[in-house]
Amino acid sequence: MDVKVVFPGGKRVDALINGFTIETDQAVQGGGEGSAPEPFTLFLASMATCAGIYVLAFCQNRGLSTEGIYLTMTNDIDPDKRLIGRVIINVIVPDAFPQKYHAPLIRSAEQCAVAKHIEETLPVFAVDVLTHCEVE
Predict the structure, then answer these.
(1) Using DSSP, how many helices (H) and how many strands (E) does the chain show?
(2) CATH no., domain 53-135
(3) pTM as predicted
């Protein structure tokens, strides 16, 4: 895969990949216009959406509805390094989602190729399943 990076103005930096344009910008406080996510935000989103692809495939392969399922991602910051020390992904499922699929759903999300590629520098990638009532 070839990526071409262009500079359309201001603090924007866009990536051109296979006919798609992925726009980025810096936040207003960083001198940008805040017109698009910052590059680091896209990096983090790539982990969450990658895990989501595996959750989606798990459900589709078993004929399970994805209605009401979503993922959240939070980060623990290492106070000494001031870098992300841990990424936590939660798979939120409806109360009626079969309990027997919770552990396999976690294992499917843990197959995230993005996380696997960065595990050497980001050693902890945690995934959990929560029901809607646990989130509220």
Answers:
(1) 4, 6
(2) 3.30.300.20
(3) 0.81
